[in-house]
Amino acid sequence: MADPLLLVVVMVVAVTGAKVSMLTPRSDYTTIVQLTDVGAPRGVGVFEVRVDGQDANVTQGMLSQVVNQAHRMRQVSLCMSVVVVSDDPAFLATFAEWSLKGRLLVWSTRLLVVTRLPREDLAALLASHWTFSMNNVMALSVDYATGSKKYGVWVHIPYSPDGARAVQLASWTSTTGLRFLTSLTLFPEKYSNFHCATINVTVLPYPPYWQEAMESNTIKYSGMDYNLLAALSQALNFTFYVLPSLNWADVTEQVEMRKSFMATVIYGILPNRLERWDHTFIFEQSDFRFSMATPILKPSWLSFYYPLGGEVWAAVLTTTVLICILLILITRTKLWQRSHGVLGAGLVVLETVGILLGQGLYGRLSTSQSNHMLVGSWLLFGAVVGTAYRGSLIASLTLPRVPPRPETIEELVTAVDRVTIESFGSSYKRFFSNSDSDAYRALGNLMYLGCNVMEGLNKALTMNPVLEVTLYDESMHKAWQRHTKRRFASAAGGPNSRRAHLGEFLNLQMILNQHFVRLDGTSPFYLGKQSVLKLLFAWPIPHDAPYKPALDEKLRIMVQAGLYKQWRKETLEAATRERRLKQWEELKQEPKQEASDRSSSKVRSLTLTHMQGPLLLFLLGLTLGAVAFLLETVMSLSNSHLRRSVPLAANPQKFPMLT
């Protein structure tokens, strides 16, 4: 072949009935191949790369520009065919490399390689490059050995009963015409049957989607995505081998480098991820949630106050003061005193408050017929208020309300100083950091990469600060937000800082159920109510993978048949049964005394946390009583000393002012 090399792209772009003729500046090149009367219904694009003894880097640069231009043409066309004409193996290898980098070919793009390379060299060329071996590629070889022009049509079949091999589909001579040598068609389908071939996949455990367990020194796989892969392997007739991966970055890197056929565990589809790899048919929709340690109850001296609202306490206090004043005024009248004697104000207040507290009626206030109605009404009022207060107090002490806790993204970024996520979270961090939402940008700044689920949850548990128990209302919640914002702004990253872990909903729920749910069904963690991000999930595959249509077709059938939902249900049910059996084994292994203690501990007892308010009130009363006693003692000693210092005369007539 002469130095000028020709790259011709035939595509559907322009005028119906257009024809293609590939020629070189030198007349002898027309003897290699002459494609005349080739119908290109909508147009032809012709690109020429000249070498003329130029440096290889210059040639590669020119070829990359041609490939990029052809790639743009493919993007705007419904269907495109590419024809490469060359006898130079180095040029063809360079084209294969740059077409892969430039994303020129997909399965719907047909590539025809026209060359005069010997059969052995052509077979080796087709087998040694992904572009020629895996894509929808045929080679048209020209042979002049017999003295007459003879064409052979070759294709590389990566999966066949005899393994990967180059197959001659047809031949053409001027005497016999086109003659097919196999049952395969031109541009045959390569991925409808893998013929029991072994393909490489990459994955790491991610329950409940992919789980691994050791049984008899072998790894047993399970999970929703494993079931999907197993069904896909049966449908396409292949087996798979899981390549070892160091971390999540290694999982997708091996896919990008085409060492791995695909990563068989769900990945959220994000714009920045599509720059690195493609994805299969979307078969799952889920969301990301955050998990935090449940707030710990803090002792509050106002625990006895919360059973009644502030306005109720004000009404009770006002009513008590009014009834005390009214009864004092009644007992000060001359009519009362002539009939019932003198009753001090302190005794009136003591008996009135005693009635309110349910201490009974001593009878001093109800001796008068005129007071029966008033005292009876007060008795009824005290019984109703006291019963309501005692019932609410018991309920609030034994079943206190959960303290306010972050449930939304805005509350999360206000209340924590760090949000952990697994190593695959770099894409999410970049996505959140570039968001238009202030809350998402703040979340991106708080995200810390590299923690697995167990590590992130344990850190969130050990760095859980206590929160004061309060009844929830909007004003108190806003005050709590301001409090946590100031506290975490001043103590960010400190030893008492609070953390959360971000992850896929089912994965977090599975980990919590397996490792943190107690025997009584409670857990030290909770999942936020608001979804951080709703995503579509699929498997990562290399860019423009030619086997994507075959995978997508089978995946679509299985998902639409409801198989994936059924596998999700079975996997979660199996995990629940396994957890219950494990807890049952733990209960059987416990000593009887510990089991009885555990059963008796189900009856919740009041602790100092609950009784701090009444105890503080009692201590306050003791302190005031002690102060009053000391004051009375001092005043009594002072009066005694004053009486001794002023002697009285024997005859009081001499000191009339003392009588």
Secondary-structure blueprint of this entry?
Layout: E1 5-11, E2 18-20, E3 38-40, E4 44-49, H1 56-75, E5 80-85, H2 89-101, E6 110-115, H3 119-128, H4 130-134, E7 137-143, E8 150-157, E9 165-173, E10 177-180, E11 197-202, E12 211-215, E13 218-222, H5 224-236, E14 238-243, H6 248-256, E15 262-263, E16 267-268, H7 271-274, E17 278-279, E18 284-293, E19 296-298, H8 310-331, H9 334-340, H10 345-356, H11 372-398, H12 409-415, E20 418-421, H13 426-433, H14 438-446, E21 447-449, H15 453-462, E22 466-468, H16 474-490, E23 499-504, H17 505-515, E24 525-527, E25 533-538, E26 540-541, H18 548-560, H19 563-589, H20 592-600, H21 608-645
Parallel strand pairs: 5-6, 6-7, 11-14, 11-15, 19-22, 20-21, 20-23
Antiparallel strand pairs: 1-4, 1-5, 2-3, 7-8, 8-9, 9-10, 12-13, 16-25, 17-26, 18-23, 18-24, 18-25
Helix pairs in contact: 1-2, 5-18, 5-19, 8-10, 12-14, 13-14
